[in-house]
Amino acid sequence: MPHSHDAADAIDDALEASAEGIRALKISLIVLLVTTILQFFVVLISGSVALLADTIHNFSDALTAIPLWIAFVLGRRAASRRYTFGYGRAEDLAGLFIVGVVAASAIVAAWQSIGRLVNPQPLDNLWWVVAAGIIGFIGNEAVAIYRIRVGQRIGSAALVADGVHARTDGFTSLAVVIGAIGVMLGFPLADPIVGLLISAAIIILLWGTVRSIGRRLMDGIEPELLEKAEHALEHTPGVLSVDRLQLRWVGHRLQGTATIQVLSGSLSEAESVVHAAEHELGHVLPNLDDITISTITTAGRHHASHSHDH
User: What is the CATH architecture assignment of 4-217?
Assistant: First the structure.
């Protein structure tokens, strides 16, 4: 049976992690919306298509916080008879949505830039464009650092993806500054060319995010986490070997099963080894919600599986 204090701790940890994720999204949403509004004002007075591409991208980045927010709220719901593993997977689906939005924004930016290459337009107030690009970089980089840090701490691939997304936006803002300087130096096509380069950079950087989210949806796990868990189990007193160990992410929480070999003894002795093993796992995997540990004795008898909430 689950140990009530451990189960309560796991629920508290999961809720705190979700609350931290939601807080990160709220703050970054406000920062990005302010950045976008400032940039859009400069687009209106300058006509810079590179800055427009950057502004569209920043706005899409701000909007991607909303499905992720919904996913964090959903993930806090208790498992139901239909969703017996809970709703944590909503977070990874939100990550897929983020990828789609970023790809769409890159296509829109490229379309605008190609149009401007075909029909060049004069640019005004270039120093304003430079200022807006710098504002965009600072706003995005601040959001990127914050989201990635929180995402890594709570184990959310989707939040880290959103942070990486913000970082790409920061670099595109710097590219806008380069385009504006190019126009000032007498190269008017610098602006739409930079717009196209921005779009290409977004697509290239997106690939890493697609792999990360896809791996989660396929129940992929980081090998170093598995090694940590194996090491913890193997060094638990009473455990002779680890025959099988499976871990998977559900949102930003871990679930798993393990089969360990223990010295031949009573059922209560096997139970105490399992409890010790769980305790060790809890230390090395703070995101672990639930682990089901089966024991095999040296005599070859199987004890029943013991499922424990961490």
Answer: Up-down Bundle (1.20)
Any idea what DSSP says for residue 242?
E
* CA-based nearest residue to 156, from 208, 213, 206: 213
Q: For residues 195 and 203, give the distance between their C-alpha atoms in angstroms, rounded to a whole number.
A: 13
Stretch 133-156: mean pLDDT, rounded? 88
Q: Report pLDDT digits (tens) over 74-84.
A: 887 888 899 88
**Domain range annotation of the chain:** 4-217, 223-309
Under 8 Å between Cβ of 167 and 141: yes
Residues 21, 51 contacting (CB under 8 angstroms)? no
The least confident of 22-36, 183-197, 270-284, 290-304 is: 290-304
Task: Write the class of the CATH domain 223-309.
Answer: alpha beta
CB-CB contact of 160 with 145 (8 Å): no
Whether 308 and 270 have beta carbons less than 8 Å apart is answered as: no
pLDDT at 264: 67
